[in-house]
Structure formats: structure tokens, C-alpha cells
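Subject: Interface between my chains keeps coming out wrong

I've been trying for a while to get a sensible model of this assembly. When I model each chain on its own everything looks fine, but I need the whole thing in one frame so I can look at the contacts. Pasting all components below, labels as-is. Any help appreciated, I'm running out of ideas.
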Amino acid sequence: MSTTSTVEVTTVLREHIMSGQIHPGEKLQQQRLAQALGVSRTPLRTALANLAQEGLLQYEPNRGYTVRAFKRKDIIDGFAARAVLEGLAAATVARQGMSDDALQDLASLLTIGDTALAKGRLDPDDLDDYRTMNVNFHQRIIEEARNSWVEELVRHTQLIPFASNRMIVWQDYSIMVRSHDDHHRLVDAISRRDVARADYLLREHINFAGDYVAKCIEDGRITTGFSKHRRNIA
Amino acid sequence: MSTTSTVEVTTVLREHIMSGQIHPGEKLQQQRLAQALGVSRTPLRTALANLAQEGLLQYEPNRGYTVRAFKRKDIIDGFAARAVLEGLAAATVARQGMSDDALQDLASLLTIGDTALAKGRLDPDDLDDYRTMNVNFHQRIIEEARNSWVEELVRHTQLIPFASNRMIVWQDYSIMVRSHDDHHRLVDAISRRDVARADYLLREHINFAGDYVAKCIEDGRITTGFSKHRRNIA
DNA sequence: TACCAAAGGATTGGATGCAATCTTGAGATA
DNA sequence: TATCTCAAGATTGCATCCAATCCTTTGGTA
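Reply #2:
Try treating it as a single job with all components included. I did that and got this:
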């Protein structure tokens, strides 16, 4: 396993920012951070530059890097962009037709979701399974579309602390059931090569998720780093 | 005007890559490049990291940076992604309603286009005006949507050598007339708050541009750096 | 001939020192 | 008191040096 300390530092820092261990708005001092991470300033500076380019940090020449504080609107807007991009992916897959591999993968992901929801109520033990399934489901469709830009751009929209697929989790059983039903319908639509329905099913699916997250922010169940409470995910 | 040599080097290198002065696939040697640019390897390496993050360079640990060679499909896919994103922007503006400023700006951009096309034939002297107008027109609509992600993601899709709005130019008068007619219809649709038509007018507008560029690549009028001829824009 | 191994040079990655810029705070002035 | 000035400390940016990794080439072996 050959890697460089720059990429390790980049990964670690990204994780710290995404999880909120480093707070939005915080200034990152190179000397201090480098020492804390056990490297010199050189690889750290490269990592900072990378994360700034990813949009997680803000950079001002001669003044250094600060953690970007996403506003509520940034998060909503991210979902809107993701919705049309993933809609494009679904439409593309429907038009091209799915490979057998993809169909099989999606079918087994659907089953995992069905199983997690089978109890008729929300069991916290099943949440991790469901969330992982959800991430993989969306990822699998994007991969199958084989549009490198959609892949890249969607990954980019996921780089928002507390708003990525990996962090967000439904907190209401009935919403999860409906959401997973969307997954079933989506696979059906794609299988039938129904481009239009595949497109709008996935767009609606993600737009609704955006509305839900917006509501959570409103209620204070999620904070973006700027609201007064300064709490993380409830 | 305070800036750092890192950002200057980044800008210069980006320009060199976008314009094809540095060829796709080419390996970038740090020592040599730094000397050529008159800086040390430190700011150069930061610039290289930035450009790699932007997608213009490919990086392999311990092996350095090479200029990314976009394949034909990458370019087509870029237009597909841009189409849905700009469609979202147009739809958003139509839904929100345009500010007076925006309406005025767009109207005067339309006039510039009308003027450039008024001769009834294609005058090379007017091409620059038209191209600039076209870039500003699209940019203005995106700005007016005020969705930071769309802005950012579209900028990203434009970072393809020879395929950005700034480089591409129609070479057929009748196509330009039709394309500019799209602009007129788009402003009309947005003014009437017709979300659906604004959306699909801009999508079609860009998808067609993508088809056109694809055809140009096919004909060898544009090369992506991988085709045998290794020519630039004709 | 084809393949493998090791040594030497070449290239990239990281640490350190110094210069340039910014920030802070004490003192002066209105 | 509020504001401005400027100097000292702090922080970032850049150049250089050394270490780690890669690449090439030469020689050997099956």
C-alpha cells in the first residue's frame, strides 16, 4: 500500500470537517494543525489547498484557510442540483438499458431495504443497514449511467457537512417506507426503459429529501454551524 | 492588488492547458516547469494540486501530474450534465421572477446578438462579439438563479479544453440564427414565468450544442488530444 | 531470445529556514 | 471616549535541502 502523507492528511481533515469535529467558521492555523497531525506544514498546506478546491474550506491569500460555513440555502440548493443530476443518471440508465450485473445489484439492495423495514416499525439497529443500502443504491445507478461528470458533480454536492447521504437518516418510519417504495418504482421504471418516469421519480425522491432536511434545519434538528445553538445532528 | 505567486501560476497553467499549449497526456515535470515559470517548486506544486482537483490534471502519488486527456464521451457527457444544470437555473429564475436588472442585462445581450447576426451572413469580425455575448448570456441566467452549486458545477463542466463556451464558436450562420432565437424564446419564457418551457428550452439549447460539438469531433474539426491528427480547433 | 534482478540516476514528497504579509495592542491625538 | 499610528509578534508564502520512491539500464540466467 503506497500512499503519501498528503493524501492521508487530506482524508483525515475532510472527515473531521464533515463530521463537525472542526467547526464551521473556524480558522485553521498551519503550525498548530501540522503539529496536531504529526506532519510538517508542507503536506498540510497541500491538503488545505485540496480541501479548499473541494469547497470545504475558504482561502484568502496571505490570510489562510477557514472552514466554510454552509448556509441553509446552500444545503437546499445542493439537493436541487443533485436532483437534476441524479435524474439525468436515472434517465440515462433507462435509455441505455441496465446490465444484468446492475439489475442484480439493485435487486439485492432493494431486498436489504425491505428487510430493514420488515418489522413494521423503526428499529435503531436497522438504521445503519438502511443508510448504507441507500448510499449504495444511489451510487449504483450513477455508476451504471457511466457519465463521469455526473459522478463527479454529485460527489461534489455531497461534500456538505451533515447533509451528505452518509450522514442523513430518516427519523420517521412512514417516510422511510415511502422513500423505499420510490426505490422499487425507480427500478421498475428503469427496467421498463421508461426514461421520463425514471427521471422524475428520482428527482422527486431527492427533492423531497431536500425539503425534509430543510425542515430539520428549521426545527434545529440539524445545524449548519451558523445557528445559535451550535449543535450537531440530534 | 495583493496576490500570491501560487494563484498566478495556477491561472497561467490553467490557461496553457485550456488553450492546448500543453498537450493532453503530457507529463509535467516539476523542476523543468518551475524553472520555465520562474518560481520554485513549492508554489508550482500547490498549483498542480489545485488543477488536479479541478480535473484538468491527473495525479498519481510518487509519479506526478499529467495533463488529463478528455475522451470524446467526456465532452458529450459534460454537455448533458450542463444541460440539466442550466435547465434548473432557467427554471429557478422563471419561478422566482427576474429582477429588473437581469431583464435589462438580458435584453441588451439579446440586442448585441441581433446586431452581430443582422448582416444576413456570417462575418468573422462579429464572431468575437457573439461569443462574448453568448458566454455572458448564459452566465447571467445562472447568476440570477442564485444557486451557488449550479454556478460552481457548471463552471466545473466548462473546464474542458476546447469544449468550453469561451472556445467554441458556431461555424454555420443558420445554426447561429436558430441558436440566438432560442435565447429570445428563453427570455420570453422566463418573463412569462413559464417554468417548464424555460427549463426545456435551455436544455435543448445546450444538448444541441453538445451534439454539434460531437459532430465536430467526429469530423476532426476539434480534437481531444487523443485522435491521431493532434490538431487544435480548425 | 525472453525474462528477471539490481544499481544508478532521475523525480517526487516532506522538513526546515527565511522573507513577506498580516494582526494585535499600546500609545498618541482629536 | 473614539480613532489613528506604528511597531512587535504571529502567521503565511516561498526557496532550498534531504529523504523516499520510481524509472531506466545493464548484466545475468533459463
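Reply #3:
Confirming on my end. Chain B has two domains: 5-67, 72-219.
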